[in-house]
Design brief:
Elements: H1 3-16, H2 21-36, H3 43-53, H4 58-68, H5 75-91, H6 105-108, H7 111-152
């Protein structure tokens, strides 16, 4: 399937949702924000939970989480950037040059690995995701509001158009 066609289809699905522009934009913003986090396997469930808690649109949150997963080939670069930002925020210094982690399988399950790698990555993802989320909210709210306004005021064929003074 063509990527452009897939994006167009899903963006049209977002515009077809019957809800307020704020609820749809809130759902999209939640999905985009959670897409930045390294919480693999939990993103969609968390998107549903947070959309429900904030009374945002759940469908929009799930679609946005899925759309963000299109960046999967670029996520190693994004995660490295988020790790560096998180490391700097926690230690007030940039991390030393990253080398390949030669961890054995049982070391990945150790909680100290989360503290050394996961904590800076999670902090960095929150810090990097918030500005993108805010921009996304306002852009999507404007697009949805404009689309709903055009749809509401469209002249239907066969109906007489009466100009208002």
């Amino acid at each position: 399937m063509n990527l452009r066609r897939w994006l167009q289809t899903h963006s049209l699905k977002l515009l077809a949702i019957r809800d307020t522009p704020e609820a749809i934009a809130g759902g999209v913003a939640i999905g985009i924000f959670l897409g930045f986090t390294p919480l693999f396997g939990l993103k969609t469930l968390l998107a549903i939970l947070f959309a429900w808690l904030t009374r945002s649109n759940i469908i929009a949150a799930v679609v946005a989480t899925t759309l963000h997963d299109l960046m999967l080939p670029f996520m190693p670069v994004v995660f490295l950037w988020e790790y560096k930002v998180g490391y700097w925020l926690l230690n007030y210094e940039w991390p030393q040059k990253m080398t390949r982690l030669h961890l054995r399988w049982n070391e990945w399950l150790n909680w100290t690995t989360f503290l050394t790698v996961g904590k800076p990555l999670l902090v960095g993802s929150i810090f990097c995701g918030v500005p993108v989320t805010m921009i996304t909210f306002f852009v999507v709210r404007g697009i949805v509001a404009r689309h709903q306004h055009k749809k509401q005021h469209a002249v239907h064929p066969g109906e007489p158009h009466v100009a208002k003074d």
